[in-house]
Prior knowledge:
Elements: E1 8-9, H1 15-40, H2 68-74, E2 92-99, E3 108-119, H3 137-146, H4 161-174, E4 178-182, H5 185-196, E5 202-206, H6 211-220, E6 223-227, H7 232-245, E7 257-262, H8 274-284, E8 287-291, H9 306-309, E9 319-323, E10 333-337, H10 339-348, H11 350-353, H12 360-373, H13 381-403, E11 409-410, E12 415-421, H14 423-435, E13 438-439, E14 441-443, E15 453-458, H15 465-481, H16 500-506
Parallel strand pairs: 3-13, 5-6, 5-7, 7-8, 8-9
Antiparallel strand pairs: 1-11, 2-3, 4-10, 9-10, 12-15, 14-15
Helix pairs in contact: 1-2, 3-12, 4-12, 5-6, 7-8, 12-13, 13-15
Bound molecules: pyridoxal-5'-phosphate and 2-acetamido-2-deoxy-beta-D-glucopyranose (3 copies).
The site of one 2-acetamido-2-deoxy-beta-D-glucopyranose has 5 residues, from loops.
Amino acid sequence: FSRQNRQESFEQAPMYVAVMTYLGYGIVTLFGYVRDFLRAVGLEKCHVAQERDEQKDFVPLYQDFENFYTRNLYMRVRDNWNRPICSLPGPVFDLMERVSDDYNWTFRLTGRTIHNVINVGSYNYLGFAENNADFLKTVADTTCQFGVGVCSTRQEMGNLSIHEELEKLVANFLGVESSMTFGMGFATNSMNIPALVGKGCLILSDELNHTSLILGARLSGATIRVFKHNNMHSLEKMLREAVCSGQTRTHRPWKKILIIVEGIYSMEGSVVRLPEIIALKKKYKAYLYLDEAHSIGAVGPSGRGVTELFDVDPTDVDVMMGTFTKSFGASGGYIAGKKELVDYLRSHSHSAVYASAMSPPVTEQIIRALKCLMGKDGSTEGIRRIRQLAENSRYFRARLKEMGFIIYGSDDSPVVPILLYMPGKVVAFAREMLDRRIGVVVVGFPATPITEARARFCLSAAHTRDMLNQVLHHLNEVGDRLCLKFSRRKYSSWPDLCEETDFELDS
Ligand SMILES: Cc1ncc(COP(=O)(O)O)c(C=O)c1O
Ligand SMILES: *[C@@H]1O[C@H](CO)[C@@H](O)[C@H](O)[C@H]1NC(C)=O
Ligand SMILES: CC(=O)N[C@H]1CO[C@H](CO)[C@@H](O)[C@@H]1O
Ligand SMILES: CC(=O)N[C@H]1CO[C@H](CO)[C@@H](O)[C@@H]1O
């Protein structure tokens, strides 16, 4: 049972932090109103798209209130997002320097490059985003043999032997009967959910669902109810309600009930409480859709995702979904499960029937990564990477806790959010870290609740201990300088960190 109750922390911010955060947003919002007023009377130049003069009395097409945030808050600090890179997104990368002459409304590249920035922002969990010619030999060969595009759907003429090979490998890796792959991860969710549920069905979705799941759910036409993040009481209450009272007006029973969850949540770093969800879904006879975009390859003793992490039977999950964009350093997604499910989707899913088949080099890259993870390439490199990632995650998280940062999520998760809260600190943090040649991702509203802006670190098996120590050293200094160490918990000493033996025990 202890395995099911992994440590997952969501420490609350001290009161003064919450107050200061609201105050900060309050002040910039006030300034925003003043500047919108100045723009309206023509004292300040307005850079955003505007309605033409002859349409002035129309309902505004561009300048509505929803833009307020972008126009007045985001634009001022926009230099911290969408930074262009000009190298492989490996453990270190190169950034293109840019400057703004008009207060960040537009940017100009200076032509200079900022070299050797440590990359703690890419989803390169297993380090497969690599450009070593020896590693990519099979990918190059495949490209020479099949070309880059297939110019047709799988149903028509785009069905290659390597597609078949990949689907067999994926099913084998996950321990299920069958699988099918798609050229785009986002479309795997948004196009397959409508093929599975429709009107008269009920979707129960975690509140922190990804946009692709939200779009899929909306397109399906099913009724959507949202339960609290990873909260089993909330889920059970809704399931019971749904089974007892049926559809909203007619009270007929729901045709299907589909629970949609993610393996690892990309903004919180939390791991789904899978065993409990499976118990609930069995009790109430609902179906389970599990999106493993961030967990496949990244957790579990042999990288098989959350089912392996919790040691549950993969066949208990009705629809296993995942993407190849993260751990595999490629692109695309898969759906896996029972043969009937996959065969049904092959002929009913829009992304199977109408979308072009996966590009051959991408297919080969995934095959290469999967073979490496499964040891089919005759080396132990795959398992070494999986262990390295687990070790890096534990080490990094433990050190951050010890320094006094508030971090979210499970100890196993390679996604590590550090809470920054105040808008000013978010910006100062990102700029200061880049000055120290560390590329971080900071996220705020609307991707997070307005009071919980954060920096989100993604660890990789390609990070060496030396790189992590460098990042930690700078984090420590920046944390002190910007007063970011909000945690009131005491971690006296980090318990004997994941040296080999500890890791073995835990797996
Ligand atoms: C949970 C989840 N599902 C699906 C996707 C979409 O995958 P892709 O980026 O491969 O289109 C993402 C991507 O960020 C994701 O985080
Ligand atoms: C692709 O080809 C294989 C044989 O190589 C066949 O078994 C499979 O059904 C085909 N798939 C599709 C979607 O046509
Ligand atoms: C309002 C404004 O100019 N904000 C920032 C735009 O970006 C530069 C860095 O490129 C900052 O220094 C500015 O403060
Ligand atoms: C389809 C779905 O689950 N949508 C919900 C996802 O989460 C957001 C934010 O909590 C809700 O507003 C959506 O309704």
